[in-house]
Amino acid sequence: MAPSSTARMRAAATATAKIPRRTWQWSVASLLAVLVVTSTTRAQPVGRPGRNSGPPPPQVVSPEVSADRQVTFRLLAPKAESVRVNGGDMPAIGSGAEMTKDTNGVWSVTLGPVAPGAYRYNFNVDGVSVVDPRNPATSESNANTWSLVGVSGSDFMDTKNVPHGAAAAVTYYSTALHRFRRMHVYTPPGYESGKGKYPTFCLLHGASDSDDSWTSVGRAGFILDNLIASKQATPMVVVMPAGHTGPFRFGPPAGGSAKPPVDEFAQDFETDIMPYVEKNYRVYRDRKHRAMAGLSMGGSQTLNIGIPHLDQFAYLGVHSSGVFGITGSGPGGPPSGPSFEEQHRALLDDAKLKPGLKLLWFATGKDDFLVATSRATVEMLKRHQFAVVYQETEGAHTWINWRRYLNEFVPQLFQ
C-alpha cells in the first residue's frame, strides 16, 4: 500500500533534520548566491553592455546590393593595416579592389554597376584570404571556399516564381577509386511526386572547381527551372560530379608525362557515377536520352569520355575547351605519346556512330585563353566528318559566359 501524503512529508522532514548543520548552512548560502547572480543578470537590460565592457561593435552589412546594381563590401577589422576584396569574374574588382577604413574600424568599398549574375569573392586581410563573415552564401572550389554575391536582373538565371526542382549533394562510394566521393544531382520540378522516366544530362565543371560549383556560382538549378517553366527545355536529371580525383594540378604531373597513365575520373564515371545514377534515379538508359557537356577541364573530359563512348551519348557540349595540347601549347603541353586524334582515329572515322550523335556543340569566348584550342579541336573533328556547331562569343574564361552557354545548350537537348 502506498504511503499517505502525510507520511511522505514526515519522512522528508526527518531526512532534513539529519543533514549536518554545517552542510545545511552551506546549501542555503549557495542557494542565496545563485539567486543574487540570477537577479543581477535579469536586471541587466538586453543589449546594454556590462559595466566593464566597451561599446557594442558597429553593425556591418556585407555585401549590400543597391537598386542600381552597385555592390558594397564591408569588413569589421579595426586592427588590420590593409584590406582588399578579390574576385574571379566580377569585372569591377579586376585584380583586386582596395578598401578604406572608417573611424569604427569598418573597411568598405563600393563597386559597379555590376552586370546581373553570381560572383565569387573573398577578402585579403594583411595578406590572409578570408571569406566574408557577414555573408552565409558560399561557393566551393576544389581547394577553398568563396563568398558569393548575387546581382539580380537576369531573365534566364534569376530566382523566379516558377516550380523549382531540387539539387542534392549525393555521397557515393567509388569502387574504382576506393573511397567515398560526392556529386550534385538536380531533379526537375515534379520528380518526387511523379513516376515517369527522364533523360540524363551530365554537366562537368572546370579546373580548380568542384561538384558544388555548377549549383552555386553556376546557377544551374535556377537556369533549368526557368527553361522548363517556359517550355524551352525538356525536364531532365542533371548529374554534376566532382571532376578532380586528387589535388588540383593545371599542367603535366611530375615526371614529364602529358597526363596520368590512368584517367581516374573516367574510371569513376564509367564504373560508379553512371551506374549509381541509373540505379537510384528514374532515368532512361539509352543513347538518345543521354547528354554530356563541360567547361574548360570538363570540356576536355567530355571529349575524353564522350568520343570513346560515342555509342552512349547523343549530345556533347564543349565550352571554353577542346583537346588539351592539340595546339602544342596550353594546359598539359604537347602530348608525349600518340595524340588524341591518333588514339581515337577508328572511332572518329566510324560512320555508323555519327547519325546517332544529334548535337556536337562548341562555344568559346573570343578573349578566352583556350580559344585556339577550341578552334583546333573543331577543325580536327570536321576533318573526320563531324557536323560541329561552333560559336565564338564576347568575353573570356569566366562564369559569365558559362552560364550563358548552359542556357543556350540545354534547350537543344532531347528534342
Keywords:
Immunoglobulin-like; 25% helix; alpha/beta; 6-stranded antiparallel sheet; 2 domains
Class of the largest domain in CATH? Alpha Beta
Biggest sheet strand line-up: 11-12-14-13-15-16-17-18
Structural class: alpha/beta
The fold-level CATH name of the largest domain is Rossmann fold
Q: State the end-to-end distance.
A: 82 Å
Low-confidence stretches: 5-47, 248-260
CATH homology-level superfamily of the largest domain? Alpha/Beta hydrolase fold, catalytic domain
Number of strands: 18
Our count of helices gives: 9
**Secondary-structure element order, N to C:** HHEEEEEEEEEEEEEHEHEHEHHEHEH
User: Radius of gyration over alpha carbons?
Assistant: 30 Å
User: What is the molecular shape?
Assistant: globular
Q: Would you mind describing this structure in some detail?
A:
With 415 residues, this protein is of the alpha/beta class. The protein has 2 domains: 64-151, Immunoglobulins (Immunoglobulin-like); 166-412, Rossmann fold. The protein has 9 helices and 18 strands. The chain has helices at residues 5-17, 21-43, 220-229, 264-280, 297-306, 340-343, 345-348, 371-383, 399-409, and strands at 64-65, 71-76, 83-87, 97-98, 100-101, 106-111, 117-125, 128-130, 138-140, 145-151, 166-174, 179-187, 200-204, 237-241, 290-295, 315-319, 359-365, 388-393. The chain has an 8-stranded mixed beta sheet, with helices on both faces. Strands 3, 4, 7, 8, 9 and 10 form a 6-stranded antiparallel beta sheet that branches. β15 (290-295), α5 (297-306) and β16 (315-319) form a beta-alpha-beta unit. The longest helix has 23 residues, at 21-43. It is globular. The N and C termini lie far apart (82 Å).
